[in-house]
Amino acid sequence: MNLLLLMMVISASLSLILTIVAFWLPQTNPDMEKLSPYECGFDPLGSARLPFSMRFFLIAILFLLFDLEIALLLPLPWANQLHAPTTTFIWATLILTLLTLGLIYEWIQGGLEWAE
Known about the structure:
InterPro entries: NADH_UbQ/plastoQ_OxRdtase_su3, NDAH_ubi_oxred_su3_sf. The protein is mostly helical and 116 residues long. It is 62% helix and 0% strand. Helix 3 (54-73) packs antiparallel against helix 4 (85-109).
């Protein structure tokens, strides 16, 4: 028990020390060069604080959704060794069907068109 308590105290104190050092160590001296937007060496053409288009966020969300789909379907090859692999395949087919129907709906509604 003492060893566990000692390890927890060391971990907590080391984390606290590193956090404090991380806040105090960097030297923040903002100047106009650092605060200006970077545009490949050219003078800024406009404000760097313009909002992104909602279509950009839609494409990003769709990418994350289909990336999550890959993560959910990754264990499928190992499902063959379960007692009832058909249940896993039915759920995977249901997920793929639902995502495909959502993609078709977005496509029909014009949500995937980048330029109007």
